[in-house]
Amino acid sequence: MSNNKNPEKLTSNMEDYLEVILNLQQEQRVARVKDVAQRLNVKMPSVTGAMKGLAEKGLVNYERYSYLTLTEAGEKIAREIGERHKTFYSFLTKVMQIDHQTAELDACRLEHATSRKTFEKIKEFTNNYNNNNNNNNNKST
User: Fold this and answer.
1) What pLDDT sits at residue 79?
2) What is the rounded CA–CA span in Å between residue 69 and residue 128?
3) What pTM value is reported for the model?
4) Span 23-42, mean pLDDT?
């Protein structure tokens, strides 16, 4: 019997936690509550509460005083959020010529607030834009 609640109903904060855990695992192989707290600039009890909620949703493996790991479902969501972030960041910096600091902040907001349909169109546009620029750069060399 699964204790799985609807993982589709995630807040932007929950999505951020998943994304940070994935990034920490990729960077340093493990994620700990204190690392997540530092990365998100929140207090450790906030992370602990969030991990309990994400564990109840079947997205994180969490035991007190242990490393945090993503479940398969949690990793899938984290990778999707990461892809959205990278796409929006690329769109804002390369297409819109927004400075890196502003683009980073706005990409974080957009990754949570944009519909899948809009995201897919921006992704397609950004990929085409980047490919065209790369082709033009290769022709001029």
Assistant:
1) 97
2) 35
3) 0.83
4) 95
